Inverse folding.
């Protein structure tokens, strides 16, 4: 099964180069997901773009392995293949007030552990560091500088509660991290986001029109600010910009991609998006490449799962993690958390919003037996 998962392909959906050999990388260590080979036919399209938007699911080991492999391939490519220079890498998960930390990492003044601490990663982003660290290291090894792309959390909260103008006035000198205006969604995206918000509100048994308005305001703030920062970064460096970002900020040509068209008209923008079903590799719109990554999830408790015929199966348990201390084992099938059934990877994104208290009860199938493991976690 692990060998099959290593055969993750990026499929070219718009014409271009002739298909060539696949550049393959050995599987990474357990818990960090499979390697993702990219055909030359797709890779040779990348230098055409001024902006490359690589989507991810934040907890998908496969998506992050694909990012790491892409960095390695860029680093190994011929300099003449990139007429504008190799890309700089912008990060949704780092706010612009932390750029000095990234500069120290880019200049090899600090290592990965110091980077995690100085970014205050576990508080400000919170998604598993174990998935992102190899990507950041691969970027540095390839000579691709890391740059912050998002808005500081303190300013996000100000905009959420008071609006952009009041937030900018109260922020003082920190207002430089805010966009001059917020570009709101078009009607089609607005309807999509309303349906998304309603589903989550029903799960939380809470409907709130004011909450939806704040949700739209913040989503639009993030998309607008990231697009503005990408344009500035390209102007400052003269190089293409590769953004690592949640897929929801890129899909359907909405989000960051739409706002880039307004801020930098005519600049070529190319999306690289993971899909979970092979059928979704087909019929992508122009300007979009798709790569196949099977459904997977890495928990901050230190276990990884993949979705298969047997259900949601543990594929890795990190030594010394809470999951290891609990007694989880590779091969266990995850059946339920606090009696809420786990039928697929998507449930693991929703269930945390429904949990109350500090006790987690995992119901697992191990061989023919079922067992329940209980974890008492302290509030974060």
């Amino acid at each position: 099964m692990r060998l099959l998962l290593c055969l993750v392909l990026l499929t070219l959906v718009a014409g271009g180069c002739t298909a060539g050999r696949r550049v393959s990388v050995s599987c990474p260590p357990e818990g960090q997901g499979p390697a993702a080979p990219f055909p030359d036919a797709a890779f040779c399209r990348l230098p055409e773009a001024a902006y490359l938007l690589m989507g991810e699911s934040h907890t998908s080991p496969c998506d992050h392995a694909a990012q790491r492999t892409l960095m390695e391939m860029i680093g190994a490519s011929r300099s003449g293949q990139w007429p504008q220079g190799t890309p700089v890498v912008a990060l949704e998960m780092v706010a612009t007030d932390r750029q000095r930390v990234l500069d120290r990492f880019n200049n090899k003044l600090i290592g990965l552990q110091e980077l995690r601490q100085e970014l205050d990663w576990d508080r400000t982003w919170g998604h598993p560091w174990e998935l992102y660290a190899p990507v950041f290291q691969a970027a540095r090894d390839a000579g691709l500088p890391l740059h912050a792309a998002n808005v500081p959390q303190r300013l996000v909260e100000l905009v959420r509660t008071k609006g952009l103008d009041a937030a900018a006035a109260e922020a003082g000198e920190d207002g430089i991290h805010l966009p001059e205006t917020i570009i709101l969604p078009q009607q089609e995206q607005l309807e999509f986001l309303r349906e998304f918000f309603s589903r989550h509100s029903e799960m939380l048994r809470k409907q709130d029109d004011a909450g939806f308005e704040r949700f739209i305001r913040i989503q639009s703030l993030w998309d607008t600010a990231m697009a503005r920062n990408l344009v500035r970064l390209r102007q400052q460096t003269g190089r293409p910009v590769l953004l690592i970002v949640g897929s929801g900020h890129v899909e359907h040509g909405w989000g960051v991609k739409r706002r880039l068209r307004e801020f930098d008209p005519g600049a070529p923008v190319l999306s690289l998006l993971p899909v979970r079903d092979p059928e979704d590799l087909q019929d992508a719109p122009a300007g979009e490449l798709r790569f196949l990554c099977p459904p997977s999830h890495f928990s901050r408790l230190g276990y990884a799962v993949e979705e298969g015929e047997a259900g949601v199966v543990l594929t890795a348990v990190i030594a010394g993690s809470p999951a290891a201390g609990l007694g989880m084992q590779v091969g266990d099938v995850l059946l339920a958390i606090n009696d809420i059934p786990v039928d697929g990877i998507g449930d693991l994104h929703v269930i945390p919003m429904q949990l109350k208290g500090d006790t987690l009860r995992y119901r697992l199938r191990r061989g023919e037996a079922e067992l329940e493991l209980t974890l008492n976690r302290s509030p974060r």
